[in-house]
Amino acid sequence: MVSATEEVLRRHGPEKTTVLDVARLLGVSHGSVYRHFPSKAALREAVIRRWLDHVRDELDAVLRERTAPPDRLRSLLTTMFTAKWAKAREDPELFATFRALAAEHSTVSSAHVGFLLAQVRAVVADGIASGDFAAGEPEVIAEAVLDATSRFHDPAHAAEWQSPDIEAKSAGVISLIIDGVRTR
Amino acid sequence: MVSATEEVLRRHGPEKTTVLDVARLLGVSHGSVYRHFPSKAALREAVIRRWLDHVRDELDAVLRERTAPPDRLRSLLTTMFTAKWAKAREDPELFATFRALAAEHSTVSSAHVGFLLAQVRAVVADGIASGDFAAGEPEVIAEAVLDATSRFHDPAHAAEWQSPDIEAKSAGVISLIIDGVRTR
Fold first, then answer.
1. Fold (CATH) for B47-181
2. Where's the HTH tetR-type domain (chains A, B) (predicted)?
């Protein structure tokens, strides 16, 4: 049913998709769709949650890499940005839905930010433990890392992600950050 | 005439302000306003240019401070953010005009970004010369510094600037950046 919702969202856009559209596509009563998704908002959230879960799995795989913490932090951030850029480019309707949820501070997007923060914090804590990163509070540092990279993951900047220099720009900021957290 | 335009913009908002409104307020023919500002866009740009020139003067004053480059960089960034935050809060109509110009990539806002970049580059170059900052290309580093602080100066983030933790967040990112550029 989440797949059907995805298809309808792509076809009609996030604003116009209704529970009835999904029921029609599945050939079921709209009551049975309502039992799963009691509102239009619940439909949109389910689709976006599925995508964000997928992004989280990709990032978890990076966290399991046996690389040095500075390399792992670079890889984590690059993977995070690339997933967003690809979605914005290849699936603009779903991305618009994600952007709308983020603007509304939906629990789905707040939970996602919480996961990203936990993932960055894990690498920062590893780096402090290994002596690669200077001592500090991993939570505070992880927040600063996400804030400093807003331009590359915050949907408010999606229009700039089509620019050919976005990759070079993000590499510049990532290097600045990694130098910022390293032991001196 | 720029002051009259400012007043009209504040009263009617950036979308609705016309050359005729300004002429009416000044009690002159609209032909004489047109001689100065041939279009609605020219009116808006003149008002925003005046504000941005004022911000630039404030930042130039920071650049003349005889403090160590790391402190000067912190002071430059803090002054830059505070000017934007104050304008967004205290003068929302003018700020909306600025935001619209930035979204349209107006020459006024591109020139402003160019000035900011030159100011950050100047402090970075001073810091490299004094040995406070690690060797590098000041232009490239200055771009990374502005990209890493987008959240605090890019009008796309204006809604977040009302948040009580914006000052702590910006201080966290500035510290990360200054540690990132320092000699190690």
1. Tetracycline Repressor; domain 2 (1.10.357)
2. 1-55
